[in-house]
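Input chain follows. Return structure tokens only.
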Amino acid sequence: MGIIFLKKNNKFENFVAMESKISEMETKIKCSKNFKNNVYWKIILYGVIIEIFLLLISYINSRSFNTLFEKSKCYVYSILFSIIIYTLAKLYNFLFQSLIKSNENKLKKLNVDFQKLLDDTKLEADIDNLKKKIEVYENLKKRNQQSQQPDQPDQPQQPQQPQQPNQPQQPDQPDQPQQPI
């Protein structure tokens, strides 16, 4: 009997542990998405601000040069910087998206395991209910048999012969010679 309570308690602990894992994973995914979006937009914003400063510096420096080659050389750094920032932002976005996707797959697996745990518990509850119904049926069957037995005397039961349709049923009489009256 202690094993039954131990199993039920263990299942309850499994439910609680699984629920806590699922909620932790959901919060982890939500926080990861918020963090990714926050940092991604900060990278873009700071990149644009730095790009503006680089363009201003390039413009000021290009005014002092006379040839087109020297002027374009100043602007190359700002264009190169914008390409690098864009690439880093996309790489950062890709890495966090893959991390979030991995966590979502883990969450799906946890949800499937939790559903299996629920289904097993439902199945076990259905089996327990079925066993209880079978016990009730067997008890009713025994009561019916016991209530029918006192009505019948303790005589050995004789096999009944099948009736033929043309013959009337004869009362059971022992084989005794009939006495003439």
